Amino acid sequence: MAEVSTDAAVDQLIPALIQCFGVIILGYLAGRWRILSDFEVQGLNSYVTTFALPAVFFKVMVTIDFSGVCWSLVAAVSLSKLVAFLLAFCVTLMLSRKSQLGVAAILSMFVSQSNDVALGYPVLYALYGDLASYVYLFAPAQLVVLNPISYAFLEWHDLKQNARKSLVSPSHSKDASTTSSSSSRGRWRCFLQCFYPPHPTSLLQVIWRVTLSPIFFMTVIGVVFNFILNHHIPFYVDGLLKIVADSFSATALFTLGFGMVGKMGRITERQIHMLVAILMLKL
Hints:
By secondary structure, the protein is mostly helical. 79% of the residues lie in helices and 0% in strands. It is built from eleven helices and no strands. α3 (71-95) runs parallel beside α6 and α6 packs antiparallel against α9. The chain is globular.
């Protein structure tokens, strides 16, 4: 009986893998043969992040029955992502030469984020059936909580950059030993400076930009409408959301393949080490 179920799972998994990686290969070939330009693919990326993915999360958040969700599983996966996020963020800040807040935000997002919806869902659905719908709960925890934190720190990095440069500017009147010790102290002062609160107006500006993110906004609105509509989308609206949401996976995987063209030749040794470190943290 177990052998039959295993064979059935494999029979469903292989078409799912062909589906996903086939679209990725098509995107790679389109980039390799210059069928599409970078500018045209940027338009596809904008469509995915502005319309398709927000439609996916809005539709799922409205229709899901939260009473039947195993929240302990969602909390466990979300907590593991949070630990990886914070670990990557703090280690990057401590090891970077100038305590680069923007770099730490980007790397922590890379470590904690995975392509759950476009690539993970078809594979998990082939193996576990309806349990794959939990992907739509894992991803919002990343997109609504962790990613906005990274975006906020990226905005914060731009606002604090000038102040940080003035803080760590070297004093040319000191001798070598004094400069060395002051450089060490300046590094830790720079690390702490990253967390000094900015001007209230700047902080509100950061929060406003994060809130206006289509993915963040539509996910939160979807949860609100879940209770208003009793997890049922009106018939006429459901057709529009379905056709936009269904276009997400193919478009996202296609642009993923396109983005792989020519990348390996431009990766430096330092970037390879960074990539290996990110993969190890993901494992």
